[in-house]
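Subject: Interface between my chains keeps coming out wrong

I've been trying for a while to get a sensible model of this assembly. When I model each chain on its own everything looks fine, but I need the whole thing in one frame so I can look at the contacts. Pasting all components below, labels as-is. Any help appreciated, I'm running out of ideas.
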Amino acid sequence: MVRSIQCGPFTLYAYSIDGLTSGGDISDYVLKPIRQTLTGETVSALYHSALNGAVYNAVAGPAEDLDAVALKLVNGFCVVLFPDVGAVAFEVKTGEKRGLSAPEVENTVKGPKDAFVETVRSNTSLIRRHLRSPDLRLYETRVGRRSLTNVTVVSLKGITNPQLVERMKARLNEIDIDGFLSPSAVEEYVTGSRATAFPLMQYTERTDRFCRGILDGRVGLLVDGLPLGYLAPADIGTLMESQEDRGTDYISSSCIRVLRYSGLLLSLLLPAVFIAMATFHQEMLPLPMLRSIIESKASVPFSTATEVLGLLIAFELLQESGIHLPQSIGQSVSIIGGIVVGSAAVDAAIISPAALIAVSIAGVCGFAQPNRDFAEAIRVWRFLIAVLGAIAGLFGVTVGLIILLIHLSGLQSLGVDYLSPFSKIKGAGILRHRLKNRKMRNPELHPQDRRNQK
Amino acid sequence: MKRWPWYMAALSLIAVLNLLPFHGTDVAQLKPVEVLWVYGVEDGVVIETDTLDRGSGSTVENALDHLMQTTSGHIFLETADFLLLDRQTLTLLPQLSEWLRPACGVCIAEGEMDMEQVAAFLNAHPPGCTLRDCSKGAVPTEVLKMEEGRMELVS
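Reply #2:
Try treating it as a single job with all components included. I did that and got this:
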């Protein structure tokens, strides 16, 4: 939009982009004060007067060249051109943005209910409400040649290791892509695009969890347009941690964590071990169970390996269809796929109940993992280890586990080892210790201030 | 990293062509045996199972081979909980130990046996002697008798 403004004998021009700016605000905080209060003998005098506060607007600054003008315009500014002198940009962003809402994925029974939204400025304000420390540092930059996405690096001066912050900034500066719009773009480019399915950054939609990470000495990353906050470095310990762990007492939390880690192992290994036992090591099964499995498989036309691998694929397809459909239809698909088709397949002796139970337990245990990216990586490896179990029994499963361990041992997130919570035998990686006993921050993060309480 | 797909393809090909040194038997093909009855006849040894399969041969190995070959499915001896012998086949314990689990209970059977009922009876009244005991020199003394359709384990 272009609007000419008569200011005494001079004509000024106001530029803005419809939709990004508020017409009312332009009228009230740009056009009206220019018309009513801006006076001067020359255009240059008007320009300096406008810059120095004659125009009633909180944010005003010079736009020195055409690129700067364009940048201001796409960021919700109204740029007033003073012919032959310069341009001044006034902030008049539209108030249209999604309101705060409760977290949709990371629900907790107790704890705050505010979640990140798509607007980075709203997110930084939410963080400031949780962390009122003046040491909170927000470094803003733009990534994406075309998208010009605003990205904010969040850290806490005096706690966060400056090397981590610098490393994060350096990675952001190295990124040279058209658009920095999707979560995968953020994760891949920031973490260096390692060949792994495991997440090297932790995402959260919860502001309190994000702030907890910052307080622990990690670096935060907010991307305009994504209702998420990223935390790095990430290791298995942090990815297996649920926000609910901090909402309950340490005994209950520790029990739940043990259960969660058991679920992780079951999710990863149960289908593979079932295939291996049913194909290579039947002598390890108790006789009643073996008999029951044999009876259940009497008229099933497929081998156990085919059955389990097929069910794993079917399970993934069901999940995928549930994600892409609207929530109400997605639930129906899950019910039809899981219960109706599953029961019908068992009744029709196409699959055996034992195989269905093994795959279902593995699936349910996968859902118990608090981080979705991590659970998806486990799903990939579950399939690979199941294939190895079908090829070579428990030997294959062991080989798969060793390969996985080697792979995880080689992973690093911003220089911190992925398996660092388990590098020292303390049990600290699994159990949640009493808060009053957690006097030190994680030494792997090399925080500037290691002590977090007396 | 670009070599991984080739390694995976090679492994898949080897697996598909059944060239791997790992050969499993699907659980559906198994016939798990709970009770094995080994008794002597004039020209050798007969083996009967609670799955009502039967094999015979001049030696216990031949009888087992015959049992394996003539049975539909795969006879699975790893699950055998009880071994019945007669006085003549007591000497075959060392050979049979190679096929059965050490915890397998051993007793002497006298007379005809209803193999469908033996397992249920022995589960309720397990013999005290096992193959492990026998390997240490113990001799099974308990005798399983069947009279008028009723079974009895006599010490």
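Reply #3:
Confirming on my end. Chain A touches chain B at residues 195, 278-280, 282-283, 287, 290-291, 293-294, 297-298, 300, 303-305, 391-393, 395-396 (CB under 8 Å).
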